[in-house]
Specification:
52% helix, 6-stranded antiparallel sheet, 18% strand, 25 helices, elongated, 7-stranded mixed sheet, single chain, alpha+beta
Length: 644
C-alpha cells in the first residue's frame, strides 16, 4: 500500500505547487499591470517614476521564472517525446513574449510584460482547477487497506495473544469476537456465526459460517465467536487481489486526450508556421525589425489565454452546479464521456435496492398481524439481520410485541420460545426438518422464515432486499436517453431476475464476484461506445474503475466513492439521468468555448501576419493583445450561461 499512498502524496504536492505558484504570481502581476506603459496608455492613468521600466522587468522576470517553470519543463518533456501540446504552446508563447519584451525594454521599444504575466496567471489557475478535481484518485487503495484490522487475537501456546495482523502466517489460529473484522482469509475450525460479506462479495444476506467453512479477510463477524485457521496472508488474500484489480484498472484506464490539448497542438503548429512564414516574408520586404514585430504579434495573438480557460472554467462552473444537483465530479474526462453513454450497469444491493433486509410478503391463512406478532416476539432476543428486520416490520405496523419466555437459539436453524401459552418456532427450512415438518412454500423471491406453533406451520414471512422507490423511474429515464440498462449482483439468480423484471432491466448478471464484475464490464465495453457503472460497495470498486464512467452512491462505502469518477452526494438515483443530461449540455458549452478560444485565430492570425497591410489594415501587437483579451471575456461569459 505504500506505493498508492506515495502516489496520493505526490498528487497533493502538485496541487499545492500550482496553488502556491498561482497566488504568488498573481501578487507579482499587480505591479506589472499598474506600471505597464501599455495599460497606462489604455486607461489614461500615468504613474511615472525613475526606474519604472526596471521594476516591471524585475517582477516580470520573477513571474516568468517562478510561475512559468511548470510550463517550461512541460514543454521540454513534450518536445522530447515529440508530442507538442498545450505545454509547448504555453512555453513558446511566454518565452517569446518574455525575451522579445526583454529586448524591447532594453532598446526602448514596446513590451508584452503584462501579457506574459497574465498569461502565466491564467494557465496556473486552469491547471490548479484541473489537478484538484482528480487529486484523490488513489485514495481507494488506502480505504481498501483500512478494512483489515491492525491486530489479531492469536492462540499461542494455549494463550490468546494480540499480534499485528501483518505478522500473521498460514496455520495461525485466530479468535474473531462478535462484531470484529476477520484479519485474513482462512477456515473456521471452531464456533458458529453469521458473517457479513456484503461489502466484499455483494451478497446481501449474512452468511452462516461453521466448522469447515471459508471466511474472507475484511468481512465482519456477527454475534458468535469463531476460531479461524489462517490460510492466506498479504498479497495472496482475497482483499489484496481486489486491491490489485483496482490499482491495475486505475493505471490502465483510458486517458482520452482533452479537446483543449488537441486544439493547443493544432494552434501551436499553426502559430509556429504562421510566425515563421511571417518573419521570413517581412524580413525580405521590410527588414528585420518589422519582421520581428509581425511574427511576435502572431505568436502573442495565439497565446492561449482563452484556450486555457475554455475547459477549466466550464468544469469549475459545472462542478459547482452538479454539486447543487446532488453530485460531485472527480474526473472531468469521465464526466465529458458521460454524454456518450449507451450502456449503464447498476449494482443491485444498496444501489437499485436499499441494501437491507425488509419484510416483503407474509403468507398465511391466519391474519398477517398474528404471524408477525409471534415471530417478532421470538426474534426480539436475536441480533441477526433477519430477526431485526422482522422486529422492525412489526414496530412499523404498530404491533405491540409480547414478551417471550424460555427463549433458546437453535444454531444454524432458528430460535424457539414461549409466547403466552404457545411454543413458537421461528427459522428456515433446516428448522422445519429438525422438528419433522416439510416446507410448504417456495422461496424463489427471497429468504423465507417459517413460523411454527405446535406441529403446524402458522405462516411464512418472506424477506428480501427492498427495491428503491425511485429505481423504476430511473431505469425508464435511462432508456429514454438511449441507453441499455443492465444489472449486476452477487445475489442469487432468482432474486436478480425478479428485481430485473420489476424494474424493466434489459439484462441481469447474478452470482458475480468482484473480479468477475470487472471482467463483465470489460466484455460489455467491447461492443458499447461508453459504459457507465453505478455502485456503492467495495465489491464494486474494480468495476467502477474499469468502466468508462464510474458513479458511486454517496452513502456507500468510502472505497466505492474514492474509486468513482462521479459521486452521488444524496442517496437518490434520480440524479443519474439528470447528470447525464447536464453532461451533454456542458460538453456543448466546451465545444462552443473552444471555438471562441481558438477559432478567432483563423481571422486574427492572418491580420497579425499582415496579409492585408497593402490595404492599410495592420494589427498592432497591442490591438492583438486586446483582441485576445476579448476572446477570454467571451469565453468566460459563455461559460456563465450554464447557470441558467
Amino acid at each position: 500500500m505504500k506505493g498508492g499512498c506515495c502516489h496520493s502524496h505526490k498528487e497533493h504536492d502538485h496541487v499545492k505547487e500550482f496553488r502556491e505558484k498561482f497566488i504568488v504570481s498573481l501578487i507579482l502581476t499587480v505591479p506589472i499591470i499598474v506600471f505597464s506603459e501599455t495599460i497606462q496608455a489604455w486607461t489614461g492613468v500615468g504613474l511615472r517614476f525613475p526606474g519604472q521600466a526596471w521594476v516591471v522587468l524585475a517582477f516580470s522576470t520573477a513571474v516568468y521564472v517562478y510561475g512559468g517553470r511548470p510550463f517550461l519543463t512541460g514543454m521540454v518533456k513534450e518536445l522530447r517525446s515529440r508530442s507538442p501540446g498545450m505545454m509547448t504552446l504555453i512555453g513558446t508563447a511566454i518565452s517569446v513574449a518574455f525575451f522579445y519584451s526583454l529586448a524591447s525594454s532594453l532598446t526602448g521599444g514596446k513590451d508584452f510584460f503584462w501579457e506574459l504575466a497574465t498569461l502565466i496567471d491564467v494557465m496556473l489557475l486552469g491547471h490548479w482547477i484541473e489537478m484538484r478535481s482528480v487529486m484523490r484518485a488513489s485514495r481507494a487503495l488506502e480505504e481498501l487497506a483500512k478494512l483489515i484490522p491492525s491486530t489479531a487475537h492469536v492462540i499461542r501456546k494455549g494463550k490468546i495473544v494480540d499480534v499485528p495482523t501483518s505478522s500473521l502466517k498460514p496455520g495461525d489460529l485466530v479468535i474473531v469476537k462478535p462484531g470484529e473484522r476477520i484479519p485474513a482469509d482462512g477456515e473456521v475450525v471452531e464456533g458458529r456465526s453469521s458473517v457479513d460479506e456484503s461489502l466484499l462479495t455483494g451478497e446481501s444476506v449474512p452468511v452462516q459460517k461453521e466448522k469447515g467453512d471459508k471466511v474472507i479477510g475484511g468481512s465482519v463477524n456477527g454475534t458468535g465467536s469463531i476460531t479461524v485457521r489462517i490460510e492466506r496472508t498479504g498479497k495472496e488474500t482475497y482483499l489484496s487481489q481486489v486491491i490489485a484489480l483496482v490499482r491495475r484498472a486505475q493505471e490502465s484506464k483510458s486517458k482520452t486526450q482533452e479537446l483543449a490539448d488537441r486544439a493547443a497542438a493544432l494552434l501551436f503548429y499553426a502559430a509556429l508556421a504562421s510566425g515563421t512564414v511571417t518573419f521570413v516574408v517581412w524580413a525580405l520586404y521590410k527588414g528585420l525589425s518589422y519582421a520581428v514585430e509581425r511574427s511576435v504579434t502572431v505568436l502573442v495573438i495565439a497565446c492561449p489565454h482563452a484556450l486555457g480557460l475554455a475547459i477549466p472554467l466550464v468544469v469549475a462552473i459545472s462542478t459547482s452546479m452538479t454539486a447543487k444537483k446532488g453530485a460531485l465530479i472527480r474526473n472531468k474526462q469521465a464526466f465529458e464521456q458521460l454524454r456518450n453513454a449507451d450502456v449503464i450497469v447498476f449494482d443491485k444491493t444498496g444501489t437499485l435496492t436499499e441494501g437491507k433486509f425488509g419484510v416483503t410478503e407474509i403468507r398465511s391463512e391466519a391474519p398477517e398481524e398474528d404471524v408477525l406478532k409471534l415471530a417478532a416476539a421470538v426474534e426480539q432476543r436475536s441480533e441477526h439481520a433477519i430477526a431485526r428486520a422482522i422486529v422492525e416490520e412489526a414496530l412499523e405496523r404498530g404491533i405491540r410485541i409480547p414478551e417471550v419466555k424460555e427463549y433458546k437459539t437453535i444454531p444454524g436453524k432458528g430460535a424457539v420460545g414461549k409466547v403466552g401459552r404457545k411454543r413458537v418456532y421461528v427459522g428456515g427450512p433446516e428448522l422445519l426438518r429438525s422438528i419433522g415438518l416439510k416446507a410448504s412454500h417456495g422461496h424463489e423471491n427471497g429468504t423465507v422464515v417459517y413460523v411454527v406453533t405446535g406441529k403446524r406451520i402458522l405462516g411464512t414471512i418472506v424477506l428480501s432486499d427492498r427495491i428503491r422507490p425511485e429505481a423504476r423511474k430511473v431505469v425508464k429515464e435511462c432508456k429514454e436517453l438511449g441507453m441499455k440498462v443492465y444489472m449486476i449482483t452477487g445475489d442469487n439468480k432468482s432474486i436478480a431476475e425478479k428485481v430485473a423484471r420489476t424494474l424493466g432491466v434489459d439484462k441481469a448478471y447474478a452470482r458475480v464476484l468482484p473480479e468477475e464484475k470487472a471482467a463483465i464490464i470489460k466484455e460489455i465495453k467491447k461492443t458499447a461506445r461508453t459504459v457507465v457503472m453505478v455502485g456503492d460497495g467495495i465489491n464494486d470498486a474494480p468495476a467502477l474503475v474499469t468502466a468508462d464512467v464510474g458513479i458511486a452512491i454517496g452513502t456507500g462505502t468510502q472505497v466505492a466513492i474514492e474509486s468513482a469518477d462521479i459521486i452521488l452526494v444524496e442517496d437518490d438515483l434520480k440524479n443519474i439521468p439528470r447528470i447525464i443530461r447536464f453532461s451533454r449540455r456542458v460538453y456543448s458549452k466546451m465545444v462552443q468555448n473552444l471555438w471562441w478560444a481558438a477559432g478567432y485565430n483563423i481571422f486574427a492570425i492572418p491580420l497579425a501576419a499582415g496579409v492585408l497591410s497593402s490595404y492599410g489594415v495592420v494589427l498592432a501587437p497591442a490591438a492583438g493583445a486586446a483582441l485576445m483579451s476579448l476572446s477570454t471575456i467571451i469565453v468566460a461569459l459563455n461559460a456563465q450561461t450554464l447557470r441558467r
